[in-house]
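We both want to read discrete structure tokens more fluently, so let's practise on a single case. Once you have written the record down, we can walk along the chain together.
***
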Amino acid sequence: MKVVGCFIEWDGKFVILHRRPDKSQGDKWGLVAGKVDGKESDVEAILREIEEETGYHATEKELEFLGEYVWHFPEYILTFPTFRLKLKQPIQIKYRPDEHAGYKWVTAEECYSMKNLVHGFHDLLGYVGYI
């Protein structure tokens, strides 16, 4: 399975979304992320997910590719191309209540100390150099 994700940063923090309890990885916190659909490129997929999950219309020029990471979970193998978007000004997050229960801006240390993160998120923070 391939899922793209993005650290959306502003003022030393990044946004994380709280997944609804009835969704996959329910009641856990994660990045703006989602599956790559059909013939989408990773960049097309993350630009779509950013807009769907935050309301922000990002451009390819704003994205920095941080790497592609792979996890071998018992249920599946996850490939996770990861991006960063450094905002030039704060944005109002407009998440979809049918997918997420809320959001918050956190420092890397605050995020790492949380117990209810989606699978692999603690590792990812180290892989990309936040921790």
Q: What stands out?
A: The chain has one domain: 3-127. The mean pLDDT is 95. The first strand starts at residue 3 and ends at 10. The longest helix spans residues 42-54.
